[in-house]
Amino acid sequence: MERVKKYTGVYAYTSTTKRHQGRPDVCFYVTIKNQGKKERHKIGWRSEGVDAAYASQKRTELLNQVRLGEQPRVRPKEGLTLQEAWILYYENHCRTNTKTPQKMFSRWKCLVKDELGGKMLSEISPLDLETLKATLQEQGKSPKTIETALALIRSIYRKAELWDLYRGKIPTDRIQWPRYDNQRQRWLTPQEARALLQEVQGRCRDPQRLFWRMCMIALYTGLRFSEIANLRGEQLNLAAGTIRAQNTKSGRDRTVFITGELEQVLTNIPMQPGHLVFPARNGGVHKEVPGLFPRAVKALGLNDGVDDRKHKVVFHTLRHTFGSWLAISGVPLFWIARLMGHSNQETTERYSHLCPDMQRHAVDCIDTAFHHGITPGLWFSLGGRQNTNPDPDGDTEPASPA
After folding, report:
1. Residue 344, CA distances (Å) to 26, 184, 224, 333, 368 in order
2. What is the Cα gyration radius of the chain?
3. 62-77 pLDDT, tens per residue?
4. Edge-to-edge strand ranges of the sheet holding 23-34
5. Is residue 376 within 8 Å of residue 353, measured between CB atoms?
6. Predicted confidence (pLDDT) per residue in 296-317, tens digit
7. Residues with Cβ < 8 Å from 267, sequence gap 6 or more?
């Protein structure tokens, strides 16, 4: 959507699908301020006889209504298509409030636009969404991809409702959402991790081997690739042995700790405040994992014969290995969640099967409490130690803490 320079507050959107007299059709919008808030109103399409001058005239009428204390006419919900709602959603939300507006645009174009873009918001039914799901499944889209398409539609409806552009039922509230298990399950043994890191290090062509250092951070701290790629000099404190991750997936900053070996890896690399620690070749932020990582995995044969993506080794496997090793070492799930920045407990629960000894140790206290009269919490805090010397009355007393 572009501003019409000749007319204040008038904007024009050129359609990529709708045509008029052999040329792309153009829709005109105007913006006004009402009680300090910016409002956008659709005036109409060029194919409907609307031009920029007419849109400017209608804007003046709307402004006069505001000056007289009247409520300016809001476009009725029946006249707003999903395509038009998407334009407003993209211009007023995606471009300013999301980290990856281009990804949102790609989802709309590839998953939703052709199927539902031309339908009115009030006309889209749960059946239409079920048809969309079936179409995407026939195209070989994964359940996760189908969910992102439905989530985008739901978000467009909610914003339209919030902006008083739509009042009615939201069809995504009345359908069954795809179910899937998308959690990575593969983690590396120490031997596999060592071999992979050595392979990556040998394939790095830059003198400082920055990507190898990024892999080391992922394995030793559990940071996500995007969190590492966005690190700036002020976020690393080698003196305190900490890394402060900001703008994380969960929306909360968190601190991770630098071990002795990782400290050596991070020594002698530039850490200037305000500058990226691991810039891409163009000097900006890495948008995706460099290709040398999958090539290193392929060279080691780590994914040979593996068809299920949950069991394939990818960069995220380094983070999952960090959490798995913590669980195997007996670290409580609470601290694993804190260190990895999980936003919900269910994500952390997938590591519980890796620490069966801790679970067995926890429930053994019930047996001891029943037979020996010891408080379960005290027994657990003492590591299962007990005094087997009975007292004169035949009862067993717990050993006194040292």
Report:
1. 45, 16, 16, 12, 33
2. 29
3. 888 888 877 665 444 3
4. 2-3, 10-20, 23-34, 37-45
5. no
6. 999 999 999 988 878 899 999 9
7. 238
Q: Is 393 exposed, middle or buried (0-12, 13-18, 19+ CB in 10 A)?
A: exposed
Amino acid at 336: I
Helices and strands (DSSP H and E) totals, the chain = 17, 7
Give the other-Cβ count within 10 Å of 114's Cβ.
Answer: 11
Helix runs in 244-344, H state only: 260-266, 292-300, 316-328, 333-340
Calpha distance 337→321 (Å, rounded): 14
Confidence at residue 368, expressed as pLDDT on a 0 to 100 scale: 64
In single-letter form, the type of residue at position 202 comes to G
Q: What is the pLDDT of residue 396?
A: 42
Distance CA 25, CA 49 (A): 11
344-362: per-residue pLDDT in tens? 776 777 777 666 565 566 5
The position carrying tokens 């989802």 is: 107
Residue 255 host element (H or E): strand 254-257
Q: Retrieve residue 295's tokens.
A: 């090539």
**CB 335, CB 255: distance < 8 Å:** no
Q: Are 351 and 323 in contact (CB under 8 A)?
A: yes
Q: Which amino acid is at 223?
A: L
Q: How far is CA 152 from the centre of its chain?
A: 13
How many other β-carbons are positioned within 10 Å of the β-carbon of residue 70? 10
Q: Do residues 30 and 58 make contact, with C-beta atoms less than 8 angstroms apart? A: yes
> Order of strands across the sheet with 236-237?
236-237, 242-245, 254-257
Q: Report the candidate in 81, 126, 130, 86 with the shortest Cα–Cα distance to residue 104.
A: 86
Token pair for 256: 């991770």
Kindly state the DSSP code that residue 396 receives in the 8-state scheme. B
Angstrom CA distances, 97 to 91, 105, 318, 394, stand at 10, 14, 30, 70
Strands (E), 6-127: 10-20, 23-34, 37-45
